[in-house]
Amino acid sequence: MKNPSIDVLSPAGYRRRATILGVIALLVGAACLYMGFDPTMLFTEFHYVTDLFSSMSPPNLNVIWHDETIGMAVLETLSMAFLGTLIGGGFAMFLAFLAAENTMPSRIVRMLVQLILSIGRVIPPLFLILVFISAVGLGPFAGALSLILSTMGTFGQLFTEIIENVDPAPADAIYSVGATRAQVIRYVILPQVLPSFTANFFYAFDINIRVAISLGIFGGGGIGFQLFQAMRVLHYHDAMALILLTVVLIVGSEKLSDLLRSRLLNRGSLK
Amino acid sequence: MNEISFNPPRLGLFRRYGRVSLVLLGILALAQGAAWVCGARFDLLFHGIADSMHFMVHLLTPELNAFSDMWQPALTSVFIAVVGTVVGTAISLLFALLAASNIAPRWLRNTTRFLLGLERALPEIVILLFLVAAFGLGPFAGVLSLAIGCIGMLGKLIADAIEELDPVSIDAIQAIGASRVQVILFGVIQPIIPSIISFALFRFEYSIRLSVYLGAVGAGGIGLELYRSFTMLDYGRAATALIVTLILVFVSEWVSGFLRKKIKGGRFQ
User: Are residues A150 and A209 in the same domain?
Assistant: First the structure.
């Protein structure tokens, strides 16, 4: 903040703040009563957390090395995220060209495509995975399919904005010497947007790893499913090892994605 | 006048597109491997789509009289998100003070930042699985996991806002003899209250989406309703639950956006 004004509040200002705080407190209090949520339980019942923690440690790290299903589960999670990113991102890229004002002249097509994209964006992934499990059965394939749709929705919107924000001058220049729309897209727009598209693909992979782990719990397979199983049958030492593995997986993919993205955007290559 | 000539570089097709196509081939090979691992099969997909037509029809015809059963779980979801976010914001504020370089010593700041980063890496659903194992099913575990899930993101954002504070105003408060607590209350927290509220509202949108997920694992609410209708093959009811979920998401986004715009307009300052 540039200029924090330590202002002398007028009585009206104090009254307004007090009202806002009061409304929030009342809402939270009512919500607590309604749900039977007792905040003091956090302190009186905290020993359950420490009990569980002590029954989980030390983590049984052997399970990672000796159990082949875990290795396969990690591969499944990675594959789900990869397919979701590649295919969903590919669809997003294609649809973005149909949804952007400077590449698609027809208004009706633009609105239709934008409708498809926003449906993919707002439908919760939980719903998608349940539909795909009903259609193709339990397993990573259902997870990959729902990741494809959600990636398409989220990144289609973003890609459309990127395309619409390209510098219009070069496009006008080669239009004026008689280029077709396809040539303008290939030689003006694509080179401008490709670096940031690729950077966003890495970002999408990073997000999809997390979603893939969460979807696994609902039957999408992969490491999330293994963790859910371990918790359910009370193999807490294995579960702790799997939680650690999850954290390593997420932090690793985040760091890798950051590294690749910053290198890509600084060099500005891949034109 | 000089003659203007334009000679496009004549490259062979391979020299021009060779590297790109090699990269693309590599990606395709990876995708093939990933598809094999996932057991992705086109025939399965087409069969699945053909077979699922009979329930897709039900998904498009929501059961209208199930709406009256839905408002209670929807309210639970909203309350879980509200309480989780408020409690989480309060805890994040404490962590943010420990993670700001102009308040905490260097070693404490770095340790806290490391812990916050670790928390960000942990998906909320994993936290919930842990808490459900500790406290049993129910909204208590849901609220707590949302609150803990806030800490990584909000703690970092608020700590960054504290570090960006103008040191002059803190010095000024110290100069007139304020105690350490007073400096923190009036010099640090008060100026960033608008930022804290707008971060919390932003997180609230996310919490609503998360509470749908968490509900299905055992926190209760609209997510549980959605999950249960699906497992009981009651697709009309599932469609109703989906509509209620979408309404929740849209309304929370609208409310949060509206309030954040109002804060930016300076109403809180």
Answer: yes
A242 burial type by CB count under 10 A (0-12 exposed, 13-18 middle, 19+ buried): buried
Within-domain flag for A74: yes
DSSP state of B61: S
Question: How far is B73 from B70, CA to CA, in rounded Å?
Answer: 6
Distance from CA of A227 to the nearest CA of B (A): 8
Q: How many Cα atoms within 13 Å fall on the side-chain side of residue B224?
A: 18
pLDDT tens for each residue of A95-120? 999 998 888 888 899 999 999 888 88
**C-alpha distances in angstroms, A75 versus A31, B136, B226?**
42, 31, 29
CA A31 – CA A35 distance, rounded (Å): 6
In a domain, A50, yes or no: no
**Do A36 and A125 sit in the same domain of this protein?**
no
B127-177: pLDDT as tens digits = 888 888 888 888 888 888 899 999 989 999 999 999 888 888 888 888 888
Residue A216: which residues within 8 A CB-CB, separation 6 or more? A73, A77, A143, A222, A223, A224, A225, A226, A227, A228
Number of structural domains in chain A = 2
Residue A64 near residue A245, CB atoms below 8 Å: yes
- Residue B46, burial from CB neighbour count under 10 angstroms (0-12, 13-18, 19+): exposed
Q: Is residue A51 one of the residues assigned to a domain? A: no
Domains and CATH numbers, chain B: 59-264 (1.10.3720.10)
Tell me which chain B residues have a C-beta less than 8 angstroms from the C-beta of A246.
Answer: 122-123, 126
Domain that holds residue A116: 62-267
Residues A181 and A215 in one domain: yes
- Proportion of chain A in helix, strand, coil states, percent, rounded to 5: 80, 0, 20
Q: Do the domain assignments include residue A20?
A: yes
CA–CA distance, B114 with B97 (Å, rounded to integer):
14
Q: What is the pTM of this model?
A: 0.82
Q: Cβ of A210 and B123 within 8 Å?
A: yes
Say which CATH number the domain at A70 has.
1.10.3720.10
Q: How far is CA A159 from the centre of its chain?
A: 15
Specify whether A16 is located in the same domain as A106: no
- A32 and A66 in one domain? no
Q: Quick check: ipTM above 0.95? A: no
On whether both A113 and A146 belong to a single domain, the answer is yes
Query: What token pair was written down for B150?
Result: 């806030």
Please, which residues 196-215 of chain B have a Cβ atom closer than 8 Å to chain A? 209, 212-213
